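hi! just following up on the protien thing from before. the input was this:
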Amino acid sequence: MTTQAISARSLFRETFTLIVGSFLSLVIFYTGIILLILPVLYLAYRQEFVLCTIVMENGLTIEGLSSSWKLIKGYWWLIFRCGIPLLLVIFLTYPTGKSILVQIVSGIIQFLIMPFFIINFVLLYMRLGDRAANT
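and the predicted 3d structure came back as:
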């Protein structure tokens, strides 16, 4: 009877150790993913208006980069919130199936929706430009 109690106790201890180890591994893994994704998103959104600046102000590349950085200063969360629907549309309509029909429908949906996002970001760029000019 003591042998069974010892083996049951050791079995419980080993199972508990495996569960805790698996949980800690997942926490470390997802923390690493988050620590990699957040800086990428931050930098990507800070450079959101580079092309708008180059096209609308006939600027150079470096001017576009610095202008975009300055425009978004203090408004990063606003730009991020405006970009979340775009990211969702891209992820939800990304053609994951091998069916040609799924790819065609996804392409049509993106083709129809993307102009609205582009217009939204150009208007947002213009509004931020007006705010920067007034300050």
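The chain is about 85% helix and 0% strand.
The two ends are 82 Å apart (CA to CA).
cheers
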